[in-house]
Amino acid sequence: xxxxxxxxxxxxxxxxxxxxxxxxxxxxxxxxxxxxxxxxxxxxxxxxxxxxxxxxxxxxxxxxxxxxxxxxxxxxxxxxxxxxxxxxxxxxxxxxxxxxxxxxxxxxxxxxxxxxxxxxxxxxxxxxxxxxxxxxxxxxxxxxxxxxxxxxxxxxxxxxxxxxxxxxxxxxxxxxxxxxxxxxxxxxxxxxxxxxxxxxxxxxxxxxxxxxxxxxxxxxxxxxxxxxxxxxxxxxxxxxxxxxxxxxxxxxxxxxxxxxxxxxxxxxxxxxxxxxxxxxxxxxxxxxxxxxxxxxxxxxxxxxxxxxxxxxxxxxxxxxxxxxxxxxxxxxxxxxxxxxxxxxxxxxxxxxxxxxxxxxxxxxxxxxxxxxxxxxxxxxxxxxxxxxxxxxxxxxxxxxxxxxxxxxxxxxxxxxxxxxxxxxxxxxxxxxxxxxxxxxxxxxxxxxxxxxxxxxxxxxxxxxxxxxxxxxxxxxxxxxxx
Length: 482
Hints:
It is a single chain. The chain is of the alpha+beta class. It has three domains: 3-136; 143-250, Phosphorylase Kinase, domain 1; 255-463, Alpha-Beta Complex (Aminoglycoside 3'-phosphotransferase, Chain: A, domain 2). It is 43% helix and 18% strand. It has helices spanning 3-6, 13-21, 23-36, 96-109, 141-144, 147-162, 210-228, 257-260, 266-282, 287-290, 298-308, 311-315, 320-336, 375-391, 397-408, 414-431, 442-463, and strands at residues 42-54, 58-68, 76-85, 119-122, 127-131, 173-180, 186-192, 201-205, 233-234, 239-241, 246-250, 255-256, 343-345, 354-357, 360-363, 370-372. The strands form four sheets. Strands 1-2-3-5-4 form a five-stranded antiparallel β-sheet, covered by helices on one side. A five-stranded antiparallel β-sheet has the order 6-7-8-11-10, with helices on both faces. A hairpin with a 7-residue loop joins strand 2 and strand 3 (76-85). Helix 2 packs across helix 3 (23-36), helix 13 (320-336) packs parallel to helix 17 and helix 14 (375-391) crosses helix 16 (414-431). The longest helix is centred in the C-terminal third of the chain and has 22 residues, at 442-463. The model is unreliable at 478-482 (pLDDT under 50).
């Protein structure tokens, strides 16, 4: 079987899910990973975390491989990226020479162990493997995965922030890759072996000036919410280390709101309402205080939604016209609505980024901050809740959204809330990519998300008194919205 042909944009979903879920390809992956290990290390379970398809280009899957190292207890996770290329380029990856040098450095520093090699190709499976910390775009990932460098870096960061002498800090740290997406983004977790001397720290890697910008914006958002957040705070970065292009964050105590939605109650309602209050406060952060930010308009958001959902028509051809029609309707409807000047926005306001703890709620991840319509953040959060309730087949969505709006809406103009519903529909198309490709119910869940987007558009048109728009009936909505 030619896997590049079987996985092309013209293929069926079954071919993708066979690669991600079934025994033969997983066995081939395990055999290759085992061959890369040095004895007596042993490979345990390989947990698939995420998969991403770029039609007619490549399929990428991200795993945590559990590895047992001789002389230690238990298994340690190691992040793995597996790519099947579909564009006919084989495995001629850009930066191959750089990868060789980075791999050699990882071996010298001991951070490759227990792997003897951090990359491999399986031509018969059209498969390419990369093991953390290998990445040509982020060469600093190697030293940021070295516990010795981590100790020195954190000691300097703590000394600069609070003057604590090095001997009062942990001597050693364990390093775990929380997010390993070669060529994309990386997040590392540093846990002190002596927890009495310090807490967990997270490291986010950047290129160019993005790290300095993220550090500046997160700090100023934290300052603003400390004064205007009415009890909701922002995760304040510990330091920006320019030579490593990394921003360090102390651990936020608590759990994300997305986990607490499993057990809705008075505490969740209060958290949602406070999140609305805090978001409204953020929308009043003066852009001059935040510093230079990119402008993001509705047209750009529609384009992003079209790009992010590009894999859906490739796997569900009947849904393509529904998405295309919905985004076209959104553009037309946006022109009918009144507008307001762009403001500071969070850019990725969702339940995973709201942490509820003993001392209250904390907002995290300000990397996506931009100048945009404040309705963008509101619609983004409403869409996130829609997706969560769809994925877990739970009731109570309307009440949860109402709790959030109870905190935000009394302080916002009505026209903004109408635009928020429009953004909600577009965002549902955009974040449908978060439905896992390896989920056996991917097709049904994805159709349900697009159906929900259509329903939001239908309700908005009715609210505005507009004539009914013909609906696509490709397994989604009929003309009556049923």
